[in-house]
């Protein structure tokens, strides 16, 4: 059973921003949009570029390498939703962002 793991102080992730953290040996992208925090595997499924350097436009994140665009809420590639970035459950508690990466 996976448990909640500390990722970042909530104040370090302002609205409309992304951040990269290492949790459980994995690089995770965090993004806050409309007050909600999303967590995704920080690696583009195309050729592996780190997504936290991409451009955020609402819920859409554009990969910095070849402009593939993903929806933060589902991890889906917008023009081919069968291509998906793994997304992780997130919660905020007492000023901390916690997430579950699964598998542990
Ligand atoms: S590596 Fe992300 S679009 Fe190519």
From TrEMBL:
Transmembrane segments: none annotated. The keyword Iron applies. Keywords: 2Fe-2S, Iron, Iron-sulfur, Metal-binding. It comes from Psychracetigena formicireducens. Signal peptide: none annotated. GO terms for molecular function: 2 iron, 2 sulfur cluster binding; metal ion binding; monooxygenase activity; oxidoreductase activity, acting on paired donors, with incorporation or reduction of molecular oxygen. This is Naphthalene 1,2-dioxygenase/salicylate 5-hydroxylase systems, ferredoxin component. Residues 5-99 form the Rieske domain. InterPro entries: Rieske_2Fe-2S (IPR017941), Rieske_2Fe-2S_sf (IPR036922). Its cofactor is [2Fe-2S] cluster. CDD domains: Rieske. It comes from the Bacteria. Belongs to the bacterial ring-hydroxylating dioxygenase ferredoxin component family. PANTHER family: FERREDOXIN-RELATED, RIESKE DOMAIN-CONTAINING PROTEIN.
